[in-house]
Amino acid sequence: MEFSANLGFLFTDLPFPQRIAAAARAGFGAVEFHDQAQSEDLRLIGDLLRSEGLRLCSLNCAMGSTAGSAALAGEEARFRAEFLAARDAAEALEARAIHVMTGRVSGAGAEAVLLRNLEFALTCTDRLLLLEVISPATMPGYWLNSPERFEAVAAALPDPRLRLMADWYHFSQICGPAALSRLRGLAPHLGHLQLARAEDRGDPLAEGLPCWPGIRALALEQGLDIGLEYRPSLPPAEVLTSLRASVL
């Protein structure tokens, strides 16, 4: 288990390439991106990751104004172009996984569009494909807004490379007190975990997270990294120290 700095949330006072060195200085062993890499110099980013000794857990397909495009009818060409750009960045940077975003969409045909696009994506890469369940309260209209929808997709497309990225903040909003037990039930599908304070996506200090022992145990059992994707008010090094000290 390693802690990963989400560079879309942490060190955002710095230009994107400089966030990599900042994550290493703070004590992280890995990082993860949104879709920033696709507009950066990949050779430079790769050199920085290697020189700082950081693994890249995952990066996103393009988000755009629709928060992705994988479930949008009539946007299949857009999805393919965005996915191939993300795939090329993932391969150049040796990312373990690619996060595919479904987009904001409603209607009965969205799942069928998503399945076709995922089938295409799986033929194009050997990386894990991550789908994240996002709370409707945080992102109204996002198609993948419940664990049940993820389970339906996984049942229709039972490829072991298709995995769930589970963000504690979103799962807490969706599942309430049952969030941790729901995550345990989804353990065979998990590909990555993310952590933030449930109430406000703030600093996930161990002393304010009753769920932390259970999340840590789940990560260790499943061999998962934990991405810190939160809105910082404290230096990230302090959050890391808190999480690590609580399990010594």
TrEMBL record:
Pfam families: AP_endonuc_2
Name under which the protein is recorded: Hydroxypyruvate isomerase
MF-aspect GO terms: hydroxypyruvate isomerase activity
GO biological process: glyoxylate metabolic process
Keywords: Isomerase, Pyruvate
Ranges where the Xylose isomerase-like TIM barrel domain occurs: 20-231
Annotated catalytic residues: E132 (proton donor/acceptor), E229 (proton donor/acceptor)
Protein origin, superkingdom: Bacteria
PANTHER family: HYDROXYPYRUVATE ISOMERASE-RELATED (PTHR43489:SF6), ISOMERASE (PTHR43489)
Coiled-coil annotated residue ranges, if any: none
